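Reviewers of the previous submission asked for a worked example of the structure-prediction workflow described in the proposal, so we include one complete record here. The input consisted solely of the amino acid sequence. No template or homolog information was supplied to the procedure at any stage.
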Amino acid sequence: MPDNPGNLSTDLRGVGNLTIDAIKGITDIVESLHQTIVGFAGMFGSPGQLRTRGITGMVYRNIHSVTDLVGDGIDSLLGQLSQVIGEKDSSPAREAIIAALNGVLGDHLVARGNPLAIPMQFRTGGKPWDEKTFADAIRQSNGPLVIMVHGACMNDLQWKRKGHDHGQMLARDLGLLPVYLHYNTGLHISENGRKFSDLLETLVKRLPQSLELYIVGHSMGGLVSRSACHYGKASGQTWLKHLRKLIFLGTPHHGALLEKGGNWIDIILQISSYSAPFSRLGKIRSSGVTDLRHGNLLDDDWQGRDRFAFSGDQRVPVPLPENVQCCSVAAIIGKESGIIGDDLIGDGLVTVNSALGRHHAQMNLCFPDTHQKVIRGIHHMDLLSHPKVYETVKTWLKR
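From that input alone, the workflow returned the following structure tokens.
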């Protein structure tokens, strides 16, 4: 029993406040990431940047405001958040809030059995596929299925950006049937990869044997897709026989700048005994986020290791899947060639070398020249809507 219960009470309240501060801090990181990508002001800008706007801004304002209301820890915050955003509301704002929350704390949500944890499922228009939806879609489609796999802290509805949706445009122009994967981006990429592989195996059992599969993955979605291919092959699953093409849009095959920066912050904070306790705040970020440091795909890349330790790249090499045409698009913010823009900044989140899988011999993904494209003057989120990106994807898929 402590000598001074009053101090214990104060300490507990302090820990609760630190927990809330940590959530607010990690929310700031995600919000700043979006702001940096969109405006590129954050790379060299001042700390007092403008907040994100529109629906995205409302999402983060809601998270911040709800965080301010709660002082009893993460679970209390999540309960309060659930009440504020509503259980049945399926608006884009609610979907965006939950997607961001899962990206930040998705592994915690699953561990606690929290109903806000996103289950992996195929959806169209934000609605899960059921037997009737599937049967109707297959009956109406004359072309292959194209599976759209979103990136970190996002959801399937966010494939629509600036009035454009790659999946819907591919349906219009090529007669493909778009199917959107919805998943918890806070889980380890390998966990999502296995789940995705199992879901695809269930899907192909309902398909005509001749029907082909294509996959388009944005950002983390490309890593989840590669992980699924690995585990599908290891398990002898049959869906890989249907997969013809796999297209990556800004996928951090060899890691993303954001998480590498976050890892360095961990190390710097722990150098001093005075700053070390604050490093724990940054460690609230999810397993999915820390997997982005190097582009982890397998359980072996993280199991038995401290995922916050600075230990270098210890990944098991995973080649691109055999007998599948793999293509990759990289974006560069700068309109003109330059060492800083091309090699260090890329699209604001992923460098060109990482997006194109370039590495030393063992890790190099070796995309053929005809299966890689670099597009200048756009940022990471533009990969979802830019006309040059869409025309590139369409050209690859109709070959």
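Residues 5-111 form one domain. We consider this example representative of the routine output the project will generate in years two and three.
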